[in-house]
Amino acid sequence: MVSSEKGLSLPPQFPLHHSLILTLLLSVNISNAAVFGLKEELKLAGLKYNTCLTIFFVPYILFEIPSNVLLKKLRPHVWLSICMFMFGLVTTMQGLVQNYSGVLTTRFFLGVFEAGMFPGCFYLIAMWYKREEAQKRYSFFFSSTSLAGAFGGLLASAIGLMDGKNGYRGWRWVFILEGVLTCIVSFLFYFIITDFPEEATFLTEAEQKFVRDRLREDVGDSVEETKMTFKDVLGVFKDYKVFIGGFMYFGLIVPAYGYAYFAPTIVRQLGYSPIQTQLHSVPPWAASFAFAMIIATISDRVKHRFIFTLIPICIAISGFAILLSVHDNINVQYSALFLAAIGAYSAMPVIVCWFNTNLGGHHRRAVGTAWQVGFGNIGGIIATYSFLPGDAPKFVKGYSIALAFICLSALSCVVYFFAINRENKKRDQGVDKYSGATEEEKKMLGDLSPDYRYFL
Fold first, then answer.
1. What is the CATH number for 328?
2. Residue 26 has pLDDT above 70, yes or no
3. Of 13, 163, 248, 347, whose CA is between 20 and 30 Å from 410?
């Protein structure tokens, strides 16, 4: 449990953290499987492999918002556990496919069920913690991406030794064993994933009230009891800042997924064997986790977000710039992979936390969180076609695209900072659009309320 004021212990995010490690492990383990013969056995020549990566994002993007609505209706421990079980089951089936069509089908359904995990977990965490204490938790949770990458490389290198066992190639065992593990763990998580504060059975009525009150002081009334309608969903998009939040995340998804899906391929180009490739892909992921937690801790301590988006972004730019320009020095290229991973995977959780926790109320937070993650993952489609086989070993096009989108993210962060700073000043001066709202209307406005101040 995580200690808070008045001796009350808030729930740890370890169950969410571990569930996301597993789901992220399964979404990107196709890159590990590719090293162990997936492409050769299923004849995924040309752009077929890239298309297998791309199709994952189609349902992932479309089902983000509906999934968060279902999360609210079914309760988190039910919906997230269902998504996790189905995700594991489909991954196991992926290890049994016999052709290109089979891979496309399983990748599509992986996207369907992972769509509920990321935005749902972000939404849930935001409903428990104040903005000034949220970044460490977001980064610890988000850094599951880094741990999944590191653990995936180690696990794949071990599973790869089973190549030929019972007539199955090593890539099949990667999918089968990791999928079965996820299915088993999903049953446990049904009992330990925490619901929203107002539904948490381990809290007394007085403790539930305390959690609601401490969050109300920070972000206003959550209006949890009000049902969400289609009109409410559409109403969120009348706020231009919501679109900026989408572009902030979108710009970093391209380099992040580009790295996640193609890091083993890039490392392999440096001359390593399949097993060495998996092992050499681990250290950059581990370094990105450590740096992300350092950034998050400092950000929470100084109660500021903006500058902590730009610092990692600049590091990511330096990493991809080196990869773009240096092609004849293995040590420098490998070091640049560290900078690319450290920068991208440290900036992303700050961006997500900054935007999501600045949204007030259940409705705006549920829809805004899903929108940011859903729209942002369009970048995943771009990433899958950025690193093409014909571009190896220099991947000039891929690195150039990654750099361009990182700069887009940086620009969006600057625009968002000035936008919310302007809103705060207008409210301080009493000239805000909703300055004449009644107390009841203010509750429904969430972060649009004239009493609300955005976290910079």
1. 1.20.1250.20
2. no
3. 13
